[in-house]
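hey so u asked for the seq, here:
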Amino acid sequence: MKKLFRRLSGLCCLLFLCSAYSAEPKNVLFISIDDLRVDLGCYGAEHIISPNFDKLAESGMLFENAFCQQAVCTPSRAVVFTGKRPDSVGVIHLRDHFRTKHPDILTLPQLLQKHGYRTQSLGKVLGTGDSVSWTEPGMNNPNPRNLCTSARKYADPDMVNEVQAEYDAALEAGLTGIKFERAARGPVMEIADVEDEGYYDGRLAIAAIAALRRLKDLGDPFFLGVGFTKPHLPFNAPKKYWDLYDGIDLPHLTNDFHPSKAPWFVLGRSAEFHGYDGSPSGTVPMEIAMNYRRAYYACISYVDALLGKLLDELDTLGLSESTSVILWSDHGFKLGEHDSWGKSSNVELDIRVPLMIRVPGEKGGVGRSSALVELVDLYATVTDILEIDPPHQMEGISLLPLLKNPNQPWKTAAFSQYPRSVGEDELERVAWDLMGYTIRTERYRLTRWDSVIVPGRVEGIELYDHLTDSEENYNVAREAKYADVVEELSNRLDQGWQGALPR
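ran it, structure tokens below
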């Protein structure tokens, strides 16, 4: 009888240990969304249909005040995957590659490889080619017609042929550089009556589901990066998602003007947006602007549906209890606010991003955090969750403590930057006249535009008081009552991110 009792006790202990182990976060599903601002139901945007984003937020930790370090894709993603800020990693331009200045730096997936992980990238994740970061091949996107990149973004056959014809004509004309890229952009939006797989992101979701199944069968711990492209321009989505917004009272623009008393150069020229066929020059008429906004919202709902398929498959495969899910956007986007379209600035709409983290087991937490956090924190967060030492000095900090106690004291500021070349097209620039450094505290945003040409010279200052002006419509930097705030925040900007770390 005693032997039987000991055997039963041992079996119970073994089952307990297996259960505890299964709840430990072993895998990482790392989901990036391109150009997604905080227009989601879980962030208070009641006009957006985003049930799967909202469900993920409810099952994990939603960060209400997360900020990217530069509001354009390549620099932002370099920050995430190296744990270094733009100036440190040397990625400021879309064409920069972090390997140029740091050939031996270990990216996050590259580090995980050294610890036995299979790492795979599907879609737009890291943003630049870096084969050593991944042990598994990316998505195979067949192109039997040899279509140009722009033509593949559309689904209507006539539109595909039209964009391809523009590309062929530009090629024959000998155009190069930006002029060549813009010669075959296609229209700002397309709403085609197709299934989800009619556009790239729908096919990407299928590939991601297949990857999850394969990775489970292989049995090794994995890091799977899935990078959805929508709602990035062009605003293309299946018609059924456009139809979701029939009868919904969409919010109208209330601040379609340049911020009062702000320097003229702070927002750029919306060059990417205006590079698409048919986009109005200058201020976009309200009726057209509302159509574009609705198309952007349709893209959000489209990606939301694909996200739901991916998370459902995680449940079906029994991987949810062993897989951390981290969802983030590389930057925000302006939809006519400040008379501007796109990203590429230091305003709140461009820098504030959605961020959700769901970690299984005791390490995870459910709720919302209003702490100031940054995308540069993600590298340290993943290594902390997986109990792996980071390979180099991080310039962000782990968010794991906030998952356990979202209301604890945290960073006192978040930092971002954006360069500006005032004398040439912002997409053609190869050197900068100005660097706009910005600091965001709980109440204020201060942006200082430092001259790159004349060290020590300041070409402009912006200060926005979020207590009275959450849309950043009024630059109060020159008002006497804010003089002490400007001085204090300028000093803190000089101290940098280290001076804002939690004690």
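The domain at 28-406 is CATH 3.40.720.10 (Alkaline Phosphatase, subunit A). Residues 1-22 have pLDDT under 50 and may be disordered.
lmk if thats what u needed
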